[in-house]
Specification:
The structure holds two protein chains of two kinds. Chain A has helices at about 10-25, 40-55, 110-120, 165-170; strands at about 1-5, 35-40, 65, 100-105, 125-135, 150-155, 160-165, 175-179. Chain A is α/β, with parallel strands linked by helices. Chain A has a domain at about 10-20 and about 30-70 and about 85-155: 3-Layer(aba) Sandwich (Rossmann fold), CATH 3.40.50.2020. In chain A, the strands form two sheets. In chain A, strands 3-2-4-5-6 form a five-stranded parallel β-sheet. In chain A, helix 2 (about 40-55) links the parallel strand 2 (about 35-40) and strand 3 (about 65). Chain A is globular, with a radius of gyration of 16 Å. Chain B is α/β, with parallel strands linked by helices. Chain B has two domains: about 10-135 and about 290-305, Aspartate/ornithine carbamoyltransferase (Rossmann fold), CATH 3.40.50; about 140-290, Rossmann fold. Chain B is about 40% helix and about 15% strand. Chain B contains eleven helices and nine strands. A five-stranded parallel β-sheet of chain B has the order 7-6-5-8-9. In chain B, strands 2-1-3-4 form a four-stranded parallel β-sheet, with helices on both faces. In chain B, helix 1 packs across helix 11 (about 285-305) and helix 5 crosses helix 11 (about 285-305). The radius of gyration of chain B is 19 Å and the shape is globular. The chains are: A alpha/beta, B alpha/beta. The interface of A and B includes residues 68, 81, 83 and 121 of A. Chain B: Heterododecamer (2C3:3R2) of six catalytic PyrB chains organized as two trimers (C3), and six regulatory PyrI chains organized as three dimers (R2). Chain B: Its EC number is 2.1.3.2. Chain B: It holds the Pfam family OTCace. Chain B: It is an enzyme of class 2 (transferase).
Chain lengths: ~180, ~300
């Protein structure tokens, strides 16, 4: 198994600032916009972006939720073992809101397909955008593309993108691992 | 990732502590789901479940049906009163006929103890026992423990007394197994005629004085007097039972602590508990009902993931 660094902590920081600015460009004061982190990896990214937006760009009262898509996945009973859920925490309605899905890695697009179904349980959003830190090109199974992307990478199928967050793994880094 | 150790839920006797914790953790997620504006997830859209009720039930049946529908399973209902069972069909034949219609899971309530175990050995489907005679009622015990965990934080180390007709109660037996697996201390309380002779072999203590029992306990689970099962007189009169084993607000107020009062329903108001106890803030009877749907969703979800 070999492993190489795709993005270092410094590069991640620069990208997060750019993504935060792109969000502001489209949503200004975030009055009608909510950020929704997709469990599990997207939650750290959503929290990080929300913190950055409030501390450095003066955006307050930002609504952030976490969405778990386990019960909406299309591979239930295909994986052999039960799919284990994470918690969903969305204490607002998304009716007529701009929803920004936040996920760390966009791969086949199936998680986002599930998230699009799941979010309907919380109302009818005005529109839905997708922000992803890593966009794995050429590996999509569904016609889903990000609105905001951190870095686009070409990764072959045997390779895996691993995202480390300081809150969880003690460092900010993204690795490409060859299995 | 963990999964249940069993392909059926036939009784608490057949599962272990890790299974109970897995069911509780999964139920936590479903409890969040059923409190959403749209209370439904598509997980089991390819699963068909038959609810076979050979005995009357309102709450359990509705609870199972809601749980199944909120997981998007297809549901068929069957009750013995309007079926060919009356024409002499055997249980295996009835169930196999239903399974020929491509049913993946069977939720069954039956008046005979062991009916679920018997069925699990003879038909190809995942079986959930929704009550078999005076034997077990596992989902009720799970939701009772889940409600205690929700109210008191933990089940381990808590003192729980089960009061009433222990002899005819499947709820009592399943509760004893479940509570002991989780490390709670269990006593049973009731007239001696309604307490099975060998109950102490399960490691529970018998207390015939209700006042002493509630002074000892953190949780009192008040069972219903099942008049339909009392074939002979087990106590002189309902009035005498109420005087000795009915829980009143005055008794609760005299305690120097606030105990949790549970009841599996349906309540005979003024018999096991008075109306003011049933409606007091110490009673978690309606929480039990809400948790019942989440627990049954968790059980069905986890069992369905084992169907190949």
């Amino acid at each position: 198994m070999s492993q190489k660094v795709l993005l270092s902590s410094k590069e991640i920081n620069v990208i997060l600032h750019r993504l935060a600015c792109q969000l502001i460009e489209n949503h200004l004061d975030f009055n009608d916009t909510v950020l929704v982190g997709i469990q599990q990896g997207g939650v750290f990214l959503a929290d990080r972006l929300a913190k950055m937006l409030s501390e450095m760009y003066d955006i307050h009262n930002l609504k952030v939720g976490y969405l778990d898509i386990t019960f909406y996945r299309d591979d239930f009973r295909r994986s052999g073992k039960p799919l284990e859920a994470n918690s969903t925490k969305i204490d607002f309605l998304v009716d007529d809101k701009n929803v920004v899905f936040i996920d760390d890695v966009l791969y086949t697009g199936r998680s986002i397909r599930a998230a699009l179904t799941a979010i309907q349980s919380f109302g009818r959003p005005k529109n839905v955008e997708l922000l992803t830190l890593i966009d794995r090109r050429f590996s999509r199974h569904l016609p889903i593309q990000p609105t905001y992307r951190g870095r686009q990478v070409d990764v072959i199928n045997q390779e895996k993108v691993i995202v480390h967050w300081e809150e969880n793994n003690g460092e900010d880094a993204i690795y490409l691992v060859n299995r | 990732m963990s999964e249940l150790s069993v392909p059926h839920l036939l009784g608490i006797k057949y599962i272990n502590e890790a299974d109970i914790q897995l069911i509780f953790e999964t139920a936590d997620h479903f409890k969040e789901v059923i409190n959403r504006p749209i209370k439904k997830v598509p997980s089991l859209r390819d699963i068909t479940i038959a609810n076979l009720f050979f005995e009357n039930s309102t709450r359990t049946r509705l609870s199972f049906e809601l749980a199944e529908k909120r997981l998007s399973a297809d549901v068929v209902n069957f009750s013995a009163a309007q079926s060919s069972v009356k024409k002499g069909e055997t249980l295996i034949d009835t169930v196999n006929n239903i399974l020929s219609m491509k049913v993946d899971m069977v939720v069954m309530r039956h008046p005979n103890p062991g009916a679920g175990v018997f069925l699990s050995k003879n038909v190809k489907a995942s079986i959930v026992n929704a009550g078999d005679g005076a034997h077990e009622h596992p989902t009720q015990a799970l939701l009772d423990s889940y409600s205690i965990r929700e109210k008191l934080g933990d089940v381990a180390g808590k003192n729980v007394v089960i009061v009433g007709d222990i002899l005819h109660s499947r709820v009592a037996l399943s509760n004893i197994y479940a509570l002991q697996l989780q490390g709670a201390n269990v006593k049973v309380c009731g007239p001696k005629t309604l307490i099975p002779k060998y109950i102490t072999s399960l490691g529970v203590e018998v207390e015939t004085n209700l006042q002493k029992a509630i002074e000892w306990c953190d949780v009192a689970n008040m069972l219903r007097i099942q008049n339909e099962r009392l074939d002979i007189s087990y106590f002189p009169s309902t009035r005498e039972y109420v005087q000795q084993y009915g829980l009143t607000k005055a008794m609760l107020d005299r305690l120097d602590k606030k105990i949790v009062v549970m009841h599996p329903g349906p309540i005979n108001r003024g018999v096991e508990i008075t109306s003011d106890v049933a409606d007091s803030e110490q009673a978690i009877i309606l929480d039990q009902v809400e948790n019942g749907v989440a627990i049954r969703m968790a059980v069905i979800y986890l069992l369905a993931s084992k169907i190949k």
